Amino acid sequence: MNGPWDVWSDCTPDCAAHALPRVPATRIARRGAAFARGVRRALTDGERMADPVRLRAHAASLLDALGVRVEGAAALTAGGRDGDGDGSGLGPGTLIVINHISWLDILALLAVEPVTLLAKREVGTWPVVGGLARRAGTHFIDRTSPRRLRHTVREVSELLGSGRSVAVFPQATTWCTADRGSFRRATFQAALDAGAPVRPVTLHYTQQGLPSTVAAFCGEDTFAASLRRVLAARALTVRVTAHPVLNAADGFRDRRELADRAARAVLGGRPQPGVVTVPEPVVVAVPAFPVPEFPVPAVAVPAGPATPETPARV
Question: Are the C-beta atoms of residues 170 and 260 closer than 8 Å to each other?
């Protein structure tokens, strides 16, 4: 536990399992080589990687190298507003709220639509992901002090008000499936303060249509162990489902009600403790796009310890 905002999850590395037989060792080696090359290209891009076009290309390339296919939403920000999260659109940005399963979530999100990520400062020290997050313009926060909560809410509100779209993981930690955990509510106050729309988004992982937990990054897991599982996964797909936008100005009484509506959409309609049931929204999605193989010579796969902690919730 790093701070008063941390939550406990009963998911462990044992939750992560292949739904299909692993790919051959030769394919694992090719994927590892392609991923290592993709990481080097992204890191050497320096500050230019924050450009939305380049950031999307890097994220898609890394997923391709891993053999991970992305299906689903074509856009996450609300229509008529900032379409790339850079603050160039009209009106406030969109608060995008997503369930959290894996470090792959970040790559999937950025491959669909690059936006500003809200993460705890420790994420910047993670192997591979930390370097990419820093260069992608992630907004890091210190969640170890409860006195920072009000300041963080104000920062997010200002980002949204300036037209930047912000993505957060309100569950505060990772879970092995998309229907567990609950939402922290503070960032929903930022949406109310900025008059910003809220886009609930659900991430599901499958292998040839079968529900899969192989991508889960939970408990005392390490980045190296998680990466090895992903490299060996056969036909791994992440589906990005964008639910209808919730407008902060549409009569929501407070952040509790707004957070509950968003959680119901993201977590599949499961009731939140102590809140009245509301209708489940309709899912919006678009067809999948293919992911090519990268036949490159085998090289060493990057490895290193990483904490299982996840982007901060506020």
Answer: no
